[in-house]
């Protein structure tokens, strides 16, 4: 009986392989759990009750109010500059009420009053020129041409986004690698067990032949 138990004991290499497999399984499960709680849930909340629509520009204007932004000019060099507030008002195919356009959800959370946040430069004049360029773009190049925008009637009924931060591609990549890690771990464990089982059977057959 002791001899039979010894036969089924894993070698040091097989033991390390099993540990690696279980480690990958745990890492994959924890990654999926963390992404589900911290990232997928808010992403689905943003997408829930929303959809796409055709938007048409109604008005493009700069407000007199200016907002602060933080620029970086080196490892230990930081400062604050200001930029004018640009508002792009649009009408969607889902509603006749005007809505404020934003670049994406991140820009909406950063500054819900404006439609565009320029890359923060040290010079306020450069920030103003970037905003003016964007203003001309919406007035002259887009004009009355319809374009696709995204909305969420439950969370932000008076705002629309030019693009989504949490699109299908990002969701796929974020959940693909934890699943692959989990499956690789399962594969390592299964292959190790199968290899050990075959080795034990081969040893048993070899002993029968010698009897």
UniProtKB/TrEMBL annotation:
Record's GO cellular component terms: voltage-gated potassium channel complex
Organism: Vireo altiloquus (Black-whiskered vireo)
Gene Ontology MF annotations: calcium-activated potassium channel activity; potassium channel regulator activity
Superkingdom in the source lineage: Eukaryota
Entry's localization field: Membrane
Membrane topology designation: Multi-pass membrane protein
Gene that this sequence comes from: Kcnmb4
InterPro entries noted in UniProt: K_chnl_Ca-activ_BK_bsu
Any Pfam family hit: CaKB
Name of the featured protein: KCMB4 protein
The entry's keywords: Glycoprotein, Ion channel, Ion transport, Membrane, Transmembrane, Transmembrane helix, Transport
Residue intervals passing through the bilayer: 20-40, 170-193
Biological process (GO), any one: detection of calcium ion
Main location (coarse class): membrane
